[in-house]
Amino acid sequence: MAVSPPSPITPRPVSSPKHRRRSWAREAKGLDRAGLLALRESVAAMLEGGPIPSPPFQAYGAFNGVAEHKGRHVCVLLPLEAALEAMTVLETAKPGA
After folding, report:
1. What's the predicted TM-score (pTM) here?
2. Amino acid 38: pLDDT
3. CA 77, CA 62: separation in Å to the nearest integer?
4. How do the domains of the chain map onto residue ranges?
5. Which residues 6+ apart lie within 8 Å of 62 measured at CB?
6. What 8-state DSSP symbol labels residue 33?
7. pLDDT digits (tens, 9 = 90+) for 21-53
8. Which residues, other chains included, contact 95 with Cβ-Cβ below 8 Å and sequence gap of 6+?
9. Mean pLDDT score of the chain
10. Dihedral angle at the C-alpha atoms of 54, 45, 22, 84, nearest 10 degrees?
11. Under 8 Å CB-to-CB from 57, ≥6 apart: which residues?
12. Are 80 and 32 a contacting pair, CB within 8 Å?
């Protein structure tokens, strides 16, 4: 019995994960604590079935499909929570320490 060679696989163009990450991270750039908290709450509400965040944060709507997977909510919110934690550390750091 002869075995036919595998069919050639044509690679699909894929945007890099780094590029995708920058598209939503860019929207949070320059936010103060209040703005970052508002964004975090807006994304969290979307994950619970609420509307996609309003402009300029509509790129977070890409995570709308995660809403039905509760275990993934933490993954989506983690960068925002990490940024808030970093702000807390910087705000409470002693100068020169």
Report:
1. 0.69
2. 93
3. 13
4. 18-92
5. 20, 24
6. H
7. 445 667 778 889 999 999 999 999 999 999 999
8. none
9. 80
10. 110
11. 27, 28, 39, 42, 43
12. no
